[in-house]
Write a structure and sequence with these properties.
Layout lengths: L3 H27 L16 H22 L7 H25 L6 H26 L10 H19 L5 H4 L16
Length: about 190
């Protein structure tokens, strides 16, 4: 584990993801409620919108930062595979941790959960990137890897503008009635 890749992905990565995710928390309202920004930034205080912040920052790390670095194992296939892995792991970890301590809600706990999910997800992505794949840069177009990433993007489109009425995941925790769904108006 004492490789430069480990420190890059498992130390710098969670720091990057935490900072970008925190910045995205305010991006929608700062953009004047831009419809495109709503796809990647939080539009309300629901669990789904906070998960979207985490996943967006993870995808930026694995699909933009990682391929642009001079790390010796850069690969389009690996970066895409790692991004899908981190998105899946972060979703499971974040939702599980949030449900586990739901009754003890506080801002510092939300921030701690976000950082913990970023660390665990980045570690999972690093395992995929470093340990489990023999890669071929010509295989980046393979459907089994592209399909989950495309499904994630479609989910962003649909659930941001047409969220299912599942209170525990999609209800806006900052709204007094806790029944506000979807994109808020500025």
């Amino acid at each position: 584990m004492n490789t430069p890749d480990f420190y890059f992905h498992c130390v710098a990565g969670p720091l990057f993801v935490s900072l970008v995710g925190s910045g995205l928390h305010f991006a929608y309202h700062a953009s004047g409620c831009n419809a495109f920004v709503a796809l990647f930034a939080a539009v309300n205080e629901s669990l789904y919108e906070h998960l979207k912040l985490l996943i967006t920052a993870l995808l930026v790390w694995w699909l933009a930062i990682t391929p642009c670095t001079s790390m010796p194992r850069n690969s389009k296939l690996l970066a895409l595979t790692a991004s899908v892995s981190t998105a899946s792991v972060s979703g499971c970890v974040f939702i599980s941790l949030t449900f586990f301590i739901e009754e003890h809600k506080a801002l510092w706990i939300d921030i701690l959960l976000f950082v913990a999910a970023a660390c665990i997800a980045q570690y999972a992505g690093w395992l995929v990137f470093e340990q489990f794949f023999v890669y071929d840069d010509d295989a980046w177009y393979e459907l089994p890897i592209i399909a989950p990433a495309a499904a994630l993007f479609v989910m962003y489109l649909l659930f941001t503008y047409f969220p299912p009425h599942i209170d525990i995941v999609f209800q806006d925790a900052s709204n007094a009635s806790n029944k506000f769904y979807g994109v808020s108006h500025c």
